[in-house]
Amino acid sequence: MKPTKKGLNTICTHVGEVKDEQFKGAVSPIYMSSSYAYEDVDVKRYPRYFNTPNQEALNKKIASLEHTEAAMIFGSGMAAISHSLMAFLNAGDHIVMQQTLYGGTYNFAVTQFEKYGISYSFTEGWSAEDFESELKENTKVIYIETPSNPLLTITDIEAVAQLAKKRGIISMIDNTFASPVNQNPADFGIDIVLHSATKYMGGHSDICAGAVAATAEHIKKIWESSICFGGSLSDQTVWLLERSLKTMGLRVKAQNENAQNLAEWLSTQEAVQQVYYPGLETHPDHELAKKQMHGYGGMLSFELTDEIDATAFLKALKLIKPSMSLAGVESTMLLPTKTSHSLMTPEDRAKQGIKDNLIRFSVGIEDADDIKEDIVQALAVVGVNTVLAY
């Protein structure tokens, strides 16, 4: 008899648990040891080898969520990204990267690759044709991020994956903004799926972690490099991440609903000149997003009109937190020019369309009307008194 495929919330709750065989507790026990026996054991365990009981179990949950054979967890999203890139790139290799990237990934490319003899190209856009035009004989990796940070552009995952396979190139995706709830890139042929697990996987703004999901063969290759780089995660944080993943499906679906509501509402306001959210029918990539996403996510961005001081607006918020990072249960806003993309030059930000008045909005699980009320009062503080119905 074939095993029944488990639903999302069942996977979040039960897959990858550590069984408490001694006391039969309902949650996984934490194995905090940094030293394990090496004689007469099946596995020689060591935290830096990513195979403590808690690490091993959590890897199974993440792999199941991303529909892959295996997974690994790291100390941060950038650790997952950098370890994976360096596992597949050597001196003399070339990588093609999407133009619209998380600022930390962009900074890693422009500050680190050259010293290792790795060349790179950024695409002009994010279509498969844009990637193909940048390929060289020595291209080994294509790297994408969709939805992108912070403008929520959508890249055709399947088209990029097919291009990579046709040319024998490894494809990688940053799936952080979507989360496994809204998007499973492996189903479209992507080789390596990356996450800042600090974000939707963690979901409570209290841990820092990263994750990568792929075939067992590709994870083995990443593991062989990673045991040298040492980006492992403490078992205390591993346990907290497993706890958080149990509610990820519920949290993200609530954030999807709120974000759609708020994107539509913001789009009607005179104080807002542009809203970026793939769930809007006016979004240029809405149909593509509908094809490859299960939900449109809890992230959106919007530009205030030029006469509004965006910094003053953020300071006037009372419920929404002007805060770094994203994807917590609480709503937060920030200016990418001062935070996530501050390491980029103004010229490079301009190329990506990141303006000084662009606000990135991580929508939480609060009641939508309460979030709107806070935006209304903050706009009033900066002199915008237009009636905003909700």
Helix content: 25-40%
Rough outline: globular
Tell me the number of strands: 12
Structural class: alpha/beta
Distance between the termini: 52 Å
**Side-by-side strand order of the widest sheet:** 1-7-6-5-4-2-3
Features of this protein?
390 residues, alpha/beta, five-stranded mixed β-sheet, 14 helices, 36% helix, 14% strand
Question: Can you lay out the helices and strands and say which pair or pack?
Answer:
Layout: H1 8-14, H2 53-65, E1 70-74, H3 77-88, E2 94-97, H4 103-112, E3 119-122, H5 128-132, E4 139-145, H6 157-167, E5 170-174, H7 179-182, E6 192-196, E7 210-214, H8 216-229, H9 235-245, H10 248-266, E8 272-276, H11 286-292, E9 299-304, H12 310-316, E10 321-322, E11 332-334, H13 346-352, E12 358-362, H14 368-381
Parallel strand pairs: 2-3, 2-4, 4-5, 5-6, 10-11
Antiparallel strand pairs: 1-7, 6-7, 8-9, 9-12, 11-12
Helix pairs in contact: 2-9, 3-8, 12-14
Describe this structure in words.
The chain has helices spanning 8-14, 53-65, 77-88, 103-112, 128-132, 157-167, 179-182, 216-229, 235-245, 248-266, 286-292, 310-316, 346-352, 368-381, and strands at residues 70-74, 94-97, 119-122, 139-145, 170-174, 192-196, 210-214, 272-276, 299-304, 321-322, 332-334, 358-362. The protein has a 7-stranded mixed sheet, sandwiched between helices. A 5-stranded mixed sheet has the order 8-9-12-11-10, with helices on one face. It has 390 residues and is of the alpha/beta class. The mean pLDDT is 94. It is built from 14 helices and 12 strands. Helix 2 (53-65) runs parallel beside helix 9 and helix 3 packs across helix 8. The protein is 36% helix and 14% strand. Helix 4 (103-112) links the parallel strand 2 and strand 3 (119-122). It is globular. The termini are far apart.
